[in-house]
Here is the input.
Amino acid sequence: MALIKATVLTLGLLSSGLVMAERELTVYGGGQTTPHSNVHVTDAAGSSTFPTSWQGKSLQMPPYYGLRYTAWLNEDWGYAINFTHAKAKANPVERDIGGYSVLEFTDGANPLTLVSMRRFETIAGFRPHAGLGLGVSFPHVEVEKLGGVKTFGYQYGGPVLTALGGASYDLNERWRLVTEFQFHYLKLDVRVDGGRLKTNLITNAINIGASYRF
Here is the structure.
Protein backbone atom coordinates (compact mmCIF):
# COMPACT_ATOMS: atom_id res chain seq x y z
CA MET A 1 0.00 0.00 0.00
CA ALA A 2 3.00 2.30 0.55
CA LEU A 3 3.78 1.94 -3.16
CA ILE A 4 0.25 3.10 -4.05
CA LYS A 5 0.63 6.19 -1.85
CA ALA A 6 4.05 6.99 -3.31
CA THR A 7 2.79 6.62 -6.89
CA VAL A 8 -0.24 8.85 -6.32
CA LEU A 9 1.87 11.47 -4.49
CA THR A 10 4.50 11.54 -7.24
CA LEU A 11 1.95 11.93 -10.00
CA GLY A 12 0.07 14.53 -8.00
CA LEU A 13 3.22 16.61 -7.57
CA LEU A 14 3.89 16.28 -11.29
CA SER A 15 0.41 17.52 -12.15
CA SER A 16 0.73 20.56 -9.87
CA GLY A 17 3.67 21.80 -11.91
CA LEU A 18 1.81 21.69 -15.23
CA VAL A 19 -0.44 24.33 -16.75
CA MET A 20 -3.73 22.45 -17.04
CA ALA A 21 -6.87 23.56 -18.78
CA GLU A 22 -9.02 21.37 -16.54
CA ARG A 23 -8.91 18.73 -13.82
CA GLU A 24 -11.61 16.33 -12.71
CA LEU A 25 -12.29 13.59 -10.21
CA THR A 26 -14.49 10.70 -11.34
CA VAL A 27 -16.24 8.11 -9.19
CA TYR A 28 -17.87 5.14 -10.91
CA GLY A 29 -19.53 1.80 -10.35
CA GLY A 30 -21.11 -0.67 -12.71
CA GLY A 31 -21.05 -4.27 -13.84
CA GLN A 32 -17.85 -6.26 -14.37
CA THR A 33 -17.20 -9.70 -15.82
CA THR A 34 -14.04 -11.80 -16.00
CA PRO A 35 -13.65 -14.56 -18.61
CA HIS A 36 -11.92 -17.88 -17.94
CA SER A 37 -8.15 -18.25 -17.58
CA ASN A 38 -5.59 -20.93 -16.79
CA VAL A 39 -4.20 -21.04 -13.25
CA HIS A 40 -0.57 -22.16 -12.86
CA VAL A 41 0.63 -23.21 -9.40
CA THR A 42 4.13 -24.15 -8.29
CA ASP A 43 4.55 -25.35 -4.71
CA ALA A 44 6.07 -28.16 -2.64
CA ALA A 45 3.81 -30.68 -4.41
CA GLY A 46 5.19 -29.69 -7.82
CA SER A 47 3.62 -27.76 -10.70
CA SER A 48 0.04 -27.91 -11.89
CA THR A 49 -2.23 -26.06 -14.32
CA PHE A 50 -6.00 -26.01 -14.47
CA PRO A 51 -8.61 -23.80 -16.19
CA THR A 52 -11.30 -21.91 -14.37
CA SER A 53 -14.01 -19.40 -15.16
CA TRP A 54 -14.35 -16.37 -12.88
CA GLN A 55 -17.30 -14.55 -11.36
CA GLY A 56 -17.18 -10.75 -11.07
CA LYS A 57 -19.66 -10.46 -8.16
CA SER A 58 -19.99 -6.74 -8.94
CA LEU A 59 -22.90 -5.99 -6.58
CA GLN A 60 -21.79 -8.12 -3.64
CA MET A 61 -19.87 -6.49 -0.79
CA PRO A 62 -17.38 -5.05 -1.28
CA PRO A 63 -18.87 -3.87 -4.62
CA TYR A 64 -17.11 -3.09 -7.87
CA TYR A 65 -16.10 0.59 -8.06
CA GLY A 66 -13.42 2.93 -9.36
CA LEU A 67 -11.78 6.32 -8.82
CA ARG A 68 -10.03 8.41 -11.46
CA TYR A 69 -8.16 11.71 -11.35
CA THR A 70 -7.82 13.29 -14.79
CA ALA A 71 -5.68 16.27 -15.77
CA TRP A 72 -6.57 17.70 -19.18
CA LEU A 73 -3.50 19.46 -20.57
CA ASN A 74 -5.52 21.05 -23.38
CA GLU A 75 -8.90 20.60 -25.05
CA ASP A 76 -7.98 17.23 -26.55
CA TRP A 77 -5.29 15.47 -24.51
CA GLY A 78 -4.65 14.64 -20.89
CA TYR A 79 -3.62 11.90 -18.50
CA ALA A 80 -5.39 10.06 -15.70
CA ILE A 81 -4.56 8.08 -12.57
CA ASN A 82 -7.14 5.29 -12.51
CA PHE A 83 -7.84 2.87 -9.65
CA THR A 84 -10.42 0.09 -10.06
CA HIS A 85 -11.69 -2.27 -7.39
CA ALA A 86 -12.25 -5.13 -9.85
CA LYS A 87 -12.99 -8.59 -8.47
CA ALA A 88 -12.66 -12.23 -9.45
CA LYS A 89 -13.93 -15.39 -7.76
CA ALA A 90 -13.19 -18.81 -9.21
CA ASN A 91 -16.11 -20.99 -10.28
CA PRO A 92 -16.65 -23.37 -7.30
CA VAL A 93 -16.84 -26.56 -9.37
CA GLU A 94 -13.69 -25.84 -11.39
CA ARG A 95 -11.92 -24.56 -8.28
CA ASP A 96 -12.65 -27.81 -6.44
CA ILE A 97 -11.48 -29.90 -9.41
CA GLY A 98 -8.25 -27.91 -9.34
CA GLY A 99 -7.77 -28.88 -5.70
CA TYR A 100 -8.71 -25.64 -3.96
CA SER A 101 -11.33 -24.76 -1.38
CA VAL A 102 -10.77 -20.98 -1.79
CA LEU A 103 -9.53 -19.14 -4.89
CA GLU A 104 -10.56 -15.51 -5.23
CA PHE A 105 -9.67 -11.84 -5.30
CA THR A 106 -13.00 -10.57 -3.94
CA ASP A 107 -11.41 -7.76 -1.93
CA GLY A 108 -10.11 -6.63 -5.28
CA ALA A 109 -7.56 -7.42 -7.94
CA ASN A 110 -7.03 -3.65 -7.66
CA PRO A 111 -5.33 -2.37 -10.82
CA LEU A 112 -3.76 1.12 -10.55
CA THR A 113 -2.86 2.60 -13.95
CA LEU A 114 -1.55 5.76 -15.56
CA VAL A 115 -3.71 6.41 -18.62
CA SER A 116 -3.19 8.63 -21.67
CA MET A 117 -6.58 10.28 -22.31
CA ARG A 118 -8.08 11.69 -25.51
CA ARG A 119 -11.42 13.46 -25.87
CA PHE A 120 -13.30 14.41 -29.00
CA GLU A 121 -15.86 16.90 -30.29
CA THR A 122 -19.23 17.02 -28.53
CA ILE A 123 -22.08 15.30 -30.35
CA ALA A 124 -25.68 16.03 -29.26
CA GLY A 125 -24.47 17.04 -25.80
CA PHE A 126 -22.23 13.96 -25.34
CA ARG A 127 -18.44 14.25 -25.44
CA PRO A 128 -16.65 10.99 -26.34
CA HIS A 129 -13.37 10.02 -24.70
CA ALA A 130 -10.87 7.17 -24.87
CA GLY A 131 -7.81 6.10 -22.94
CA LEU A 132 -4.92 3.63 -22.97
CA GLY A 133 -2.56 3.00 -20.10
CA LEU A 134 -0.19 0.83 -18.09
CA GLY A 135 0.21 0.17 -14.40
CA VAL A 136 0.40 -2.39 -11.63
CA SER A 137 -2.01 -4.34 -9.44
CA PHE A 138 -2.30 -4.90 -5.68
CA PRO A 139 -4.66 -7.87 -5.34
CA HIS A 140 -6.08 -9.16 -2.09
CA VAL A 141 -5.14 -12.82 -2.44
CA GLU A 142 -7.46 -15.40 -0.89
CA VAL A 143 -6.24 -18.87 -1.78
CA GLU A 144 -6.47 -22.15 0.13
CA LYS A 145 -5.59 -25.59 -1.18
CA LEU A 146 -7.78 -28.46 0.03
CA GLY A 147 -6.34 -29.36 3.42
CA GLY A 148 -3.75 -26.60 3.17
CA VAL A 149 -2.96 -23.23 4.73
CA LYS A 150 -4.91 -20.18 3.60
CA THR A 151 -3.14 -17.23 1.97
CA PHE A 152 -5.00 -14.05 2.89
CA GLY A 153 -3.76 -10.50 2.26
CA TYR A 154 -2.71 -7.76 -0.13
CA GLN A 155 0.28 -8.32 -2.44
CA TYR A 156 1.98 -6.79 -5.44
CA GLY A 157 0.39 -8.64 -8.37
CA GLY A 158 2.28 -7.58 -11.50
CA PRO A 159 1.83 -5.40 -14.61
CA VAL A 160 -1.52 -4.22 -15.96
CA LEU A 161 -2.76 -2.95 -19.33
CA THR A 162 -5.96 -0.90 -19.43
CA ALA A 163 -8.13 0.57 -22.18
CA LEU A 164 -11.37 2.52 -21.93
CA GLY A 165 -13.84 4.37 -24.11
CA GLY A 166 -17.08 6.19 -23.46
CA ALA A 167 -18.76 9.58 -23.24
CA SER A 168 -19.67 12.28 -20.74
CA TYR A 169 -22.64 14.63 -20.47
CA ASP A 170 -22.40 18.01 -18.75
CA LEU A 171 -25.02 18.69 -16.06
CA ASN A 172 -23.57 22.11 -15.22
CA GLU A 173 -20.18 23.85 -15.06
CA ARG A 174 -18.90 21.50 -12.36
CA TRP A 175 -20.65 18.16 -12.73
CA ARG A 176 -20.96 15.70 -15.59
CA LEU A 177 -22.30 12.18 -15.98
CA VAL A 178 -19.95 9.52 -17.37
CA THR A 179 -20.54 6.13 -18.96
CA GLU A 180 -17.88 3.93 -20.56
CA PHE A 181 -16.51 0.50 -21.29
CA GLN A 182 -13.31 -0.35 -19.40
CA PHE A 183 -10.91 -3.24 -20.01
CA HIS A 184 -8.04 -4.48 -17.84
CA TYR A 185 -5.46 -7.17 -18.52
CA LEU A 186 -3.73 -8.22 -15.31
CA LYS A 187 -0.72 -10.49 -15.33
CA LEU A 188 -0.83 -11.87 -11.79
CA ASP A 189 2.07 -13.63 -10.05
CA VAL A 190 1.42 -13.94 -6.31
CA ARG A 191 2.68 -15.85 -3.29
CA VAL A 192 0.65 -18.75 -1.93
CA ASP A 193 1.35 -21.32 0.75
CA GLY A 194 4.64 -22.96 -0.20
CA GLY A 195 4.92 -21.47 -3.67
CA ARG A 196 3.45 -19.14 -6.29
CA LEU A 197 0.23 -18.82 -8.27
CA LYS A 198 0.08 -17.25 -11.73
CA THR A 199 -2.87 -16.35 -13.93
CA ASN A 200 -3.82 -13.72 -16.50
CA LEU A 201 -7.07 -11.98 -15.53
CA ILE A 202 -9.14 -9.97 -17.99
CA THR A 203 -11.87 -7.69 -16.68
CA ASN A 204 -14.60 -6.16 -18.86
CA ALA A 205 -16.80 -3.54 -17.24
CA ILE A 206 -19.55 -1.08 -18.06
CA ASN A 207 -19.00 1.96 -15.85
CA ILE A 208 -21.56 4.57 -14.84
CA GLY A 209 -20.45 7.48 -12.71
CA ALA A 210 -20.06 11.19 -12.14
CA SER A 211 -17.17 13.64 -12.55
CA TYR A 212 -16.48 16.84 -10.62
CA ARG A 213 -14.40 19.49 -12.42
CA PHE A 214 -12.11 21.86 -10.53
In short: DSSP finds two helices and 15 strands in the chain. The mean pLDDT is 92.
